């Protein structure tokens, strides 16, 4: 870890020309991506290993990061996925008996270029005003590039709108996790960037979890003999995922129960015939208030999304794609964004947030039980009609 007396310069450059000078953190070099902020006070290791952050430079609004180090038990996936990392005050001391290495060392090991020592509040306020935008972190030799050259590199980086990143984060071959307790059946999970806690939640409820590559066809999905299909969270623009929408429409036509989270919610929206749009600066963190319209209960939830479904908040409406009646099931209380969908004539629902929430909170964990109830009800109806 770099000492206070030997800190190397680094700079964060945004595409509108804003510059923030700080110190190198993690790996040295250049990284480019969409700069977004996460408001979670804890769970930085879960954030870093969330595949939904692929292609993004993540800023932590909490000022002190790295206090508990990192370990091999808490990662949500096989690696750190963020393109870059921005913190204000990285801890110089690791204060947890569970720590196996420092966060700084982990970032360097996985080649993640970061920056520390900048006014993260100022950057957050800038993004909240101007919207999420492309940016770059430059350290090492890259810190010596001219301001004009650094800005040129940022301007040449791909925009998140129109970007399909599913193939970068998905498994290459199917992976199976056995069911725990009383077995319900197989669930086919389309891996668009799934987190380990999601797999564990499904397995604990009696599903044998078949995590399939994002390129899976309807024949490959049905070959698993699924009692249900699940679409995971993931990075990218849902408008750029036509193949996943077509697959999901085929699943719905087969009458297989469906549950989707985060990216999966956006894809259910598209499969039902709805549109999606990019939020100004997104929802990222573990303190987002959402109202479940079915119960009236307000939940504090874990979010990581920059896109949302365009649908009427109140009332029941007909699916433009012909799947019957639909309603918005959950609403974000900060900005009235659609946070969940429920089909009324077919067994399908989704939420825009992360009910597994390994870093907390666990208000929304009941959604996995709601999924079980839907699947068992569908099985019972099929057996009664057999």
TrEMBL record:
NCBIfam families: CPSaseIIsmall (TIGR01368), PRK12838.1 (NF009475). L-glutamine binds at residues 52, 234, 236, 263, 266, 304, 306-307. Small subunit of the glutamine-dependent carbamoyl phosphate synthetase (CPSase). CPSase catalyzes the formation of carbamoyl phosphate from the ammonia moiety of glutamine, carbonate, and phosphate donated by ATP, constituting the first step of 2 biosynthetic pathways, one leading to arginine and/or urea and the other to pyrimidine nucleotides. The small subunit (glutamine amidotransferase) binds and cleaves glutamine to supply the large subunit with the substrate ammonia. Residues 1-182 are annotated as: CPSase. The active site is at residues 262, 354, 356. The keyword Ligase applies. Its EC number is 6.3.5.5. Keywords: Amino-acid biosynthesis, Arginine biosynthesis, ATP-binding, Glutamine amidotransferase, Ligase, Nucleotide-binding, Pyrimidine biosynthesis. SUPFAM superfamilies: Carbamoyl phosphate synthetase, small subunit N-terminal domain (SSF52021), Class I glutamine amidotransferase-like (SSF52317). SMART domains: CPSase_sm_chain (SM01097). This is Carbamoyl phosphate synthase small chain. One of its GO terms (molecular function) is carbamoyl-phosphate synthase (glutamine-hydrolyzing) activity. Composed of two chains; the small (or glutamine) chain promotes the hydrolysis of glutamine to ammonia, which is used by the large (or ammonia) chain to synthesize carbamoyl phosphate. Tetramer of heterodimers (alpha,beta)4. Residues 8-138 form the Carbamoyl-phosphate synthase small subunit N-terminal domain. It comes from Microbacterium oryzae.
């Amino acid at each position: 870890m770099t000492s206070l007396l030997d800190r190397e310069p680094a700079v964060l450059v945004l595409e509108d020309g804003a510059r923030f000078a700080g110190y190198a953190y993690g790996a040295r070099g250049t990284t480019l991506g969409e700069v977004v902020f996460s408001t979670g006070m804890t769970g930085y290791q879960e954030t870093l290993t969330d595949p939904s952050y692929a292609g993004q430079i993540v800023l932590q609004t909490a000022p002190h990061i790295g206090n508990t180090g990192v370990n091999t038990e808490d990662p949500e996936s096989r690696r750190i996925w963020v393109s870059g990392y921005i913190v204000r005050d990285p801890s110089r001391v690791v204060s947890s008996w569970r720590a196996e290495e420092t966060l700084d060392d982990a970032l360097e090991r996985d080649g993640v270029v970061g920056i520390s020592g900048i006014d993260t509040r100022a950057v957050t306020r800038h993004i909240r005003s101007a919207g999420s935008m492309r940016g770059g972190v430059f350290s090492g030799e890259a810190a010596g590039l001219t301001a004009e050259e650094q800005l040129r590199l940022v301007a040449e980086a791909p925009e998140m709108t129109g970007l399909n990143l599913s193939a970068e984060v998905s498994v290459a071959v199917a992976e199976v996790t056995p069911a725990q307790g009383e077995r319900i059946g197989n669930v086919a999970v389309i891996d668009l960037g799934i987190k380990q806690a999601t797999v564990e939640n499904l397995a604990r409820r009696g599903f044998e979890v078949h995590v399939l590559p994002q390129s899976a066809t309807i024949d490959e999905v049905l070959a698993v003999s699924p009692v249900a299909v699940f679409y995971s969270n993931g990075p990218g623009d849902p408008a750029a995922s036509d193949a996943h929408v077509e697959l999901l429409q085929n699943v719905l036509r087969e009458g297989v129960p469906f549950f989707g989270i985060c990216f999966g919610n956006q894809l259910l929206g598209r499969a039902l015939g709805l549109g999606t749009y990019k939020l100004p600066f997104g929802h990222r963190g573990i303190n987002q208030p959402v109202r479940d319209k079915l119960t009236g209960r307000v939940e504090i939830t874990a979010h990581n999304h920059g896109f949302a479904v365009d649908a009427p908040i109140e009332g029941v409406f007909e699916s433009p794609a012909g799947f019957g009646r639909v309603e918005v099931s959950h609403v974000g209380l900060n900005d009235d964004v659609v946070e969940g969908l429920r089909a009324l004539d077919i067994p399908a629902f989704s939420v825009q947030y992360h009910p597994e929430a390994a870093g907390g909170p666990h208000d929304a964990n009941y959604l996995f039980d709601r999924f079980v109830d839907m699947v068992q009800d569908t099985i019972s109806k099929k057996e009664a009609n057999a």
